[in-house]
Amino acid sequence: MDEEAYAGLSAVALAAAVTRRETAAAEVAAAALGRIARLEPSLRAFREVWADEARARAAEVDRRVAAGERLPLAGVPIGVKGTAGLRAGPARRLLAAGCVAVGATSVPGPGTRWQTWGLGAGGRTANPWRPDRSPGGSSAGSAAAVAAGMVPVATGTDGAGSVRIPAAWCGVLGLKTTNGRLPTADRSGLAAPGVLVRHAADLAAWLECVLGVRAGNAGGGAGGTGGPVTAVWSPDLGYAESEAEVVRVVREAVDRLAAAGVVRLVPPAGEAGAVLLDPGPAWLALRGPGGERTRADMRADMRADTRADRARAERTRAENDGRLDALLAGARLLLTPATPNRPHGHDGPGERYSTALTWAFNLSGHPAVSVPAGLTGDGCPAGLQIVAARGAEPLLAGVVRAAEDAGLVVREPGEG
Known about the structure:
This protein is α/β, with parallel strands linked by helices. The chain contains 14 helices and 13 strands.
């Protein structure tokens, strides 16, 4: 299998070819490693590349397939977030499904004041669309590797938007699961595992292999059977300072989904409408001393280790939970930009918080997915964030599939 053919195929298509023995897992692994070797010097998406281990694992998959064993993701190369990524539960389930881990993707370096960039073995991770911009983070390398076609699937974790932000900025799909549905090492309870892919079919396959559930149907006008899904649109959740250009791109994507019959926009239910309390101070207080921070000055301002701060944080969480419960009782989806800003440069995010529209759902625990919405005028991807009720990952996957059918796809530079 040549490198370009490999990069253009979904994980599902690769696994089907290996299962039918039209190609071998060893050939797929060789194509993946070849693409990584070619692109890694400029993208720096990996901390470590496990070439020998990947070849051995692929040979084992080929032996198991030849013996008649059914592996739903036979031979699919994956990247895992960080050097400890293989120990995480989702990665172990992907390996059990037949995936081949090719390396550890980049995450922010030590002492970082923000988490929206990554540090690979060769230096700062570049955005495949705009090398002068950040890929987002902290699942930075995972998003860059998927966008560039190095791997079709990469694992991530999302504590404040760490899957959804890089997915948005690299033009790929990024799912954060319901908090607590999968185990994590995060003691605060704010983080949840997630995944980054380019194809809706691969998100559905991940749900089956990792969560054990099947994607639902959505969007009567886009191949679904359930009719349009009711949704509320908010450009800022009532508190974020969203860039007009980002809002324009994302709102145009929402209108396309509505025109295709994927969603039906409705007014928000509840007295508060689609307005939340700013979750930033609460997130910082609940994260606790030594946790992830976005700016050093907020550490000093918030003093998250005091009981008063935590009590205020819990009040904010309870109020926002009530508002979200009311909103999602009247509509099945909440739609927002994934980030209020486009990708920032490698010198940092400035004064606007990239997490402003994502960390509300780490506090509340709702599942959320970032879907490619289009490009801003300077060629940067923007993401549409879709939020659903807790445990409604199948609905989100169905909406993603319907959105892809409706043409909401941004796949260059990895193509496919």
